Amino acid sequence: MDKTTFQIKEEENIVHARSEVREISRSLGFDELDQARIVQSVSELARNVIQYASEGTITVEVVVVADRKGLRIKVEDFGPGIPNVQELLMEPKRKHNGETSGIQQVRMLMDDINIKTLEEGTCVEVIKWLKTSTMLNGKS
């Protein structure tokens, strides 16, 4: 698998993306818990696209850095952008009232997150890394 891209415009697109991403993560050797984390992150990010920007894309690809292998999910839209992205990323992962935003939930579920935002558009990239033991057992 090089890259797979999904258009996000409506709820059916989210369901399709979730299903495909679950299969991709399973085929890479992610355990069931990490598969659920990845799929939930796709849901949160795709719902943000629909809610704040009406449409966008999700691109999924395998990444290899040194001896690490992971799954990168890149979500792009052309909406109004996120007004205080640095503030959002500096917030504790769980707010004092126990509630979290979609981005905060994704931060808790994935290993790496990077957000770029402009007045017209946002790009969120997240990565979930395979556990070292999974790679050593030949499932890489």
Automatic annotation (TrEMBL):
Residue ranges of every copy of the Histidine kinase/HSP90-like ATPase domain listed in the record: 33-132
Taxonomy, superkingdom: Bacteria
Matching Pfam families: HATPase_c_2
GO terms assigned for molecular function: protein serine/threonine kinase activity
Keyword Mitochondrion recorded: no
Cross-referenced InterPro entries: Anti-sigma-factor_SerPK, HATPase_C_sf, HATPase_dom
Keyword Repressor: no
Keyword terms of this UniProt record: Kinase, Serine/threonine-protein kinase, Transferase
Gene3D superfamilies: Histidine kinase-like ATPase, C-terminal domain
Protein name stated in the entry: Histidine kinase/HSP90-like ATPase domain-containing protein
Species this chain originates from: Thermoflavimicrobium daqui
